[in-house]
Amino acid sequence: MVPSLSIHERLRHYFVAMGATENNSDQGTLRFTIGSDRTIVNVLTNADIIERNRIIDTLLHLSSLRSEASLLYVAAPKLLGATLNSEILRSTGIGLLLYDDRRIEECVRPTPDSQSVQINQTVPTSSTDTTLIAELAALKSTCTKLENNLNMMMLEFKSLREGTISTRMIPSSSTETPFDPSHRIEPTLHTGIASEGLPSFFSNNPWLEVLSKRGRAEGPLLAG
Amino acid sequence: MTTSDNYRSHYTFGMDFGTSDFKFGPITCGENPRIVNNRGYFPDKRSLVYRAFESTADIIVGDQVPLYLQSNEDLTSRLVYPMKNGLIEKDDDKAWRVVGALCQFGLTSFPVTANNGFHGYNIVASLSAVSPRYMYEQLLALFKQTDHTGNIRAVTVIPQPFAVAIGHGVTTCVVIESGHGNSQICPISKYPIGSAQVALNRGGGDANAITAEVLKDSGYGDLAGEESLVRRVKESIGLIPGDLDLAIAEAKRSPRKFRAKHRVPGTRLEIDLDKDSWTRFLIGEYVFNPNHEIFESYFSRGLTRPRDVKMGETTFRGMLDFGDAIVTSVEKCPVELQPLLYREILLSGGNFSWRVPESMQGVAVDAPTKVKSLLRMKGIKNVSVKMTASPQFSVWHGCIIYGFAVPEDYEWNWQRLEGWLRIGA
Description:
CATH architecture of the domain at 3-160 and 392-422 in chain B: 2-Layer Sandwich
Strand order of the largest sheet of chain A: 1-2-3-4-5-6
Distance between the termini of chain A: 51 Å
Radius of gyration of chain B: 22 Å
Structural class of chain A: alpha/beta
Shape of chain B: globular
Oligomer: heterodimer
Largest sheet of chain A: 6 strands, mixed
Strand content of chain A: 5-15%
Number of strands of chain A: 6
Largest interface: A-B, 66 and 78 residues
CATH superfamily of the domain at 3-160 and 392-422 in chain B: ATPase, nucleotide binding domain
């Protein structure tokens, strides 16, 4: 039941099962096309991972292929998983496939490089263009931050003038972004109906009223 | 709108410590929190390979853990699921360190840039209903230790079934929370009625165990040891029978209709129970009622019989079926309350998420229908059994509502085990 194929063959099956077509693979490097994405997979074997230089060499080699493919993977035996800090791969956008005798598992998803080659698209040819684009992106980001800071300062100023505490909003994401005055949350605790802006499970929830009285009136002891 | 309302509508943070998963996130996550396995991995710092690559963390939690799996022979001692039974021993240092790391991981996953309005999150953590007082003490102490970043303003701990009832918006009900390791039946009437709680030493892990036996009997013994695969097979082919004897007879009569097949994604493996496809009904039945005589043959061949286990002050019943467990729990409550409790029975937790293929409806049933059927056998007829709208996240929903609604000046009360323990400024 356990396939006795080489890891290269198994990886071919793995990618073909995902709808990929293989093109121009060579020793140690597999090349596929998935939809419009070109994908390159470098394979490390058990013999390779005991040589630290070999691992570094493979990762550097993969990075150098960034302009040839939008998705880059390194496939390695599961043993490597215990030692490799995946942040290194995440920061470079390289995906990690770990395999053992039975399974191949995608442990780190590769980050597609928008500037890399896609089918029917042109390759950026000048390194100056890339630098320019990066600088423009940095400028745009700085400009947005300044704009947001200005908005926040305006809000603080307005709040101080009105003698109230400013209300800061945070978006539905993992990090805080600047306040958006048009996005106010108006919870109506005692009507039993939560207003727009709060998650839907607040709607008509009778516990809002029950719990808001906790500590105000004596209830039965919470036996536990 | 008060300033306090505004603050809580941004900075309320829920943490659900399930037996298998840790669900966490602030109110601003919306409907769904983040989810990672409730586990931690202790790397072997003596290993040469480890030193060569200079990994630094003492405990690995969250998304990084899968990178370490199946690469060490001593995995069982290094990979710790702190709440696999819902409880942590007081002196289980490793388990508490994992919980601490998860708290830290949860908070650092949602960083807030410093601003004048932010004084730390109000955190509502949820533990198993059978958690003894020392677990509350240890968890609250962990939060105090974790607060070196100033991200915690106040913290409270509530039992999971209570959170489910809150999340579902029902103030008088019986909540059955069934996770990987155990199940808890908890009547609620504005407060959890702790003295009427019943705990079962049975959960999704037991369904995995019977699935492994089914695989062994069908010639897939080499796969039966792979826990994650067994779990996927269970979810793919396991069914709850309306009546086990009838379901087995029907499946044997129409083997093609009930044939159980599972293809393992990304491999060439296909599991096909073929003529033994009737055994797919054993998987669901075992969770709800392991007393059928058919299971005796599995017990005699090595399947561990769910035993009564005393943990802390609570006895977890092994073989009590869900119908008996609900009746036992409700009958510990005042008589006039009992009809109201039967009228709202809520099922929560991943262990109640069972599919019913359209072609098998009637023979296979969903979890609420099975519970109703077990109660009917005990003579309880006027019941309403429902799945919570979001079984996986209902505890977290309850935590968020609790954190939003309970007044911030309600101080933590050790007698009631509720209120806010102030930590930050």
